[in-house]
Specification:
The complex is a heterodimer.
Chain A (H helix, E strand, L loop, with lengths): L9 H19 L6 E7 H9 L2 H4 L4 E8 L7 H11 L4 E5 L13 H6 L4 E3 L3 H10 L4 E8 L4 H13 L5 E7 L2 H10 L7 E5 H7 L5 H5 L5 E4 L3 H17 L4 E3 L11 H10 E9 L3 E10 L8 H4 L15 H5 L31 H8 L1 H10 L2
Parallel strand pairs in A: 1-2, 1-7, 3-4, 3-5, 5-6, 7-8, 8-9
Antiparallel strand pairs in A: 10-11
Helix pairs in contact in A: 1-11, 2-15, 7-12
Chain B lengths: L4 E10 L4 E6 L2 E6 L17 E5 L2 E5 L2 H12 L4 H14 L1
Antiparallel strand pairs in B: 1-2, 1-4, 2-3, 4-5
The chains are: A alpha/beta, B alpha+beta.
Bound molecules: iron/sulfur cluster.
The site of iron/sulfur cluster has 14 residues of chain A, from helix 14.
Chain lengths: ~375, ~90
């Protein structure tokens, strides 16, 4: 397949790996701690495990699986609010498949569906709008989740609904933005990160400029990366090369899709419909200033939060869950006591076990041997 | 959730509602192309373009020349002996 197969080529991958290893060995000659590079995006986390990249990399290069899985960082209280909407008899709740198994404090959407709520999985928010057109007697609510990659699509769906004067459609908006979150992670004095793989598809919307502060202020290299194995290896090589040369810059490996300024039409659509929320709660990370989006007053008729009264309670995660520490890279999934015993993909306690983009589910599925290997090296 | 897939625009179906059909490795689907049209790229001109498809929307055009450049950079890596030699020469110069 065009734009995919070439980026899975074995020979090129092997060569790139050798270069990474050579440079990492050189860098680590005079440092005790391994290099810690965070892949921000859950799509990257998934690709790393799917292709077994982590096992191929030199041991002194540690990948930290960041907070870029929107399902994983959705707080329990928001899931409960979504359930309250879904359980209303007039509502059809339309959602992406990823979100259906996220545990709320009582149950997940999947359990609510089994108990009779009308919950439907859709591929696109436009499909949810179609449902509203086909069922004028019902209220169709779309569970709007995701980072900048997904935000333009719900924004454009809302403007389309307004153009077509559809009144039985709304969005329960849980959109979040990545930059304030990266800042929050870097502000934590014990983050110990040496560099970042930047999220390719978020960046295709927002461009490369918003990451500049990471390089300039925090002196950390950032390389915006594509999602094929070669993309990721090349990006890692670029980060490692910056570290080797003592540079901290924003570089763009994913030039076939990402430009400096992003996509103006998509940004315009987002700006038209959404504004930033003052503070937004992230599961595992707590509240982060300006990191969430909400629907503007002009589109209030399409805002499920205004349309329905919601319990809107903050629900703390149970103590035993260590998702927050795993999210920030301070704990490995298997170091959580619940990992694999009480918490597994079939019956997840924490959201990191739900989606294939969550670090815990990825380790559970692919990561066994690597986990033991790590325990040997890190005392 | 942020994953997307390359597809090629086959037909423009509805200019007013910005709908087009893409082919994603043999599978056809109608998508919204509002994010990839502007004065320089009116809808009619988009047929044949490769785009990144995500949740039913074309989010950007894929730049084939840039893809080539990226691969060419990898092909220029050469083997690691060359890299070693290069770094050594750099370090000596410093
Ligand atoms: S194993 Fe489960 S509870 Fe523990 S950190 Fe992972 S997702 Fe959270």
């Amino acid at each position: 397949m065009k734009f995919i197969d070439e980026f899975r080529d074995h020979t090129r991958a092997r060569q790139t790996l050798e270069h990474i290893t050579t440079l990492v060995e050189r860098i680590c000659r005079d440092r005790a701690a391994p290099l810690r590079i965070m892949e921000v995006c859950g799509g990257h986390t998934h690709a790393i495990f799917h292709y077994g990249l982590e096992a191929m990399l030199p041991k002194q290069l540690e990948l930290i699986h960041g907070p870029g899985c929107p399902v994983c960082v959705l707080p329990m209280g928001r899931v409960d609010d979504c359930l309250a909407i879904a359980e209303r008899p007039e509502v059809i709740l339309a959602t992406f498949g990823d979100a259906i198994r996220v545990p709320g404090s009582r149950k997940s959407l999947l359990q609510a569906k089994a108990e009779g709520a009308d919950v439907r999985i859709v591929y696109s928010p436009m499909d949810a709008l179609d449902l509203a057109i086909r069922h004028p007697e019902r209220e169709v609510v779309f569970f709007g989740l995701g980072f900048e990659t997904t935000i333009p699509s719900t924004a454009l769906t809302i403007t389309q609904a307004q153009r077509q004067r559809i009144t039985n459609f709304s969005v329960f908006c849980n959109h979040i933005t990545i930059i304030p979150t990266l800042k929050a992670i870097l502000e934590n004095p014990d983050h110990r990160l040496d560099g970042f793989l930047g999220p390719g598809h978020v960046s295709m919307i927002i461009g490369t400029e918003p990451y500049r502060f990471i390089a300039e202020h925090y002196r950390c290299p950032v390389v915006i990366s594509g999602f094929e194995p070669l993309d990721m290896l090349q990006s890692l090589l670029m980060v490692v090369r910056q570290l080797h040369d003592g540079r901290a810059e924003v570089e763009n490996q994913y030039q076939r899709l990402v430009s400096r300024d992003g996509n103006p039409a998509a940004l315009q659509a987002v700006h038209e419909v959404y504004e930033s929320r003052q503070s937004c709660e992230w599961r595992g990370l707590g509240p982060i200033e300006d990191s969430g989006m909400q629907i503007r007053q002009a589109y209030a008729a399409y805002d499920a939060e205004r349309k329905f009264s919601l319990p809107n309670q903050q629900v703390a995660d149970p103590e035993a869950l260590r998702c927050g520490e795993v999210l920030t890279g301070n704990l490995k999934p298997w170091q959580c006591e619940l990992f694999g015993s009480q918490c597994s993909p079939e019956s997840p306690c924490g959201a990191l076990m739900v989606s294939s983009e969550g670090a815990c589910a990825a380790y559970f599925q692919y990561g066994g041997p690597r986990a033991e290997q790590h325990e040997e090296v890190s005392p | 959730m942020c994953l997307g897939i390359p597809g090629q625009i086959i037909t423009i179906d509805d200019i007013d509602n910005r709908l087009a059909t893409v082919d994603v490795s043999g599978v056809r689907r109608q998508i919204n192309i509002a994010c990839i049209i502007d004065d320089a790229h009116p809808p009619e001109s988009c047929v044949g373009d490769w785009v990144l498809v995500h949740v039913g929307f074309a989010l950007n055009r894929i730049d084939a020349a840039a893809a080539e450049r990226t691969l060419a950079m990898l092909d220029m890596l050469g083997d690691t002996h060359e890299l070693d030699a290069l770094i050594d020469s750099q370090e000596k110069r410093q």
